[in-house]
C-alpha cells in the first residue's frame, strides 16, 4: 500500500507566466520552469518523498472552476496565503473553516486562471 495516494499534481493554466506570478506571490516560493514533450511547466519546490506538482500550460490542459480540486499546504495560518492570493488577483471562495480539531482547517480560493484551489492546515492533534 502506498504511503500517500498523491504522487504528483498538475494545475492547468492558460497563461503560464501570469499563473507563475500568482503562485509565487501566494506561497512566497520560486517555481522552476521546465519543458517536457512540448508542454510548458512550472514546478513547485519540494523535497522527496514529499508530493511534487506543477503548473501546466498545454493544449490539453484547460483551467476551470469545475475541474480537479487539490488541497495545498497552507501553513499554520490559512489567513496568510489567502491574503496573498487576493493581493495577487485571486478570490476567496471559502474562508478559513474548521473541519474538526483533529483534521484542522481548510479554505479555498480561485487562482489567476479560474481554478479552485484548496488550502489545508493540520489540527492540533496532527501537530503533536
Descriptive overview:
- The protein has helices at residues 16-27, 79-87, 124-127, and strands at 8-12, 32-36, 39-43, 52-57, 70-73, 91-100, 104-110, 116-121.
- A hairpin with a 3-residue loop joins strand 6 (91-100) and strand 7.
- It has 128 residues and is α/β, with parallel strands linked by helices.
- The longest helix is centred in the first third of the chain and has 12 residues, at 16-27.
- Strands 1-4-3-2 form a four-stranded mixed β-sheet, covered by helices on one side. Strands 5-8-7-6 form a four-stranded mixed β-sheet.
- It is built from three helices and eight strands.
Which terms would index this structure?
128 residues, alpha/beta, 4-stranded mixed beta sheet, globular
Task: Please give the structural blueprint.
Blueprint: E1 8-12, H1 16-27, E2 32-36, E3 39-43, E4 52-57, E5 70-73, H2 79-87, E6 91-100, E7 104-110, E8 116-121, H3 124-127
Parallel strand pairs: 1-4, 5-8
Antiparallel strand pairs: 2-3, 3-4, 6-7, 7-8
Helix pairs in contact: 1-2
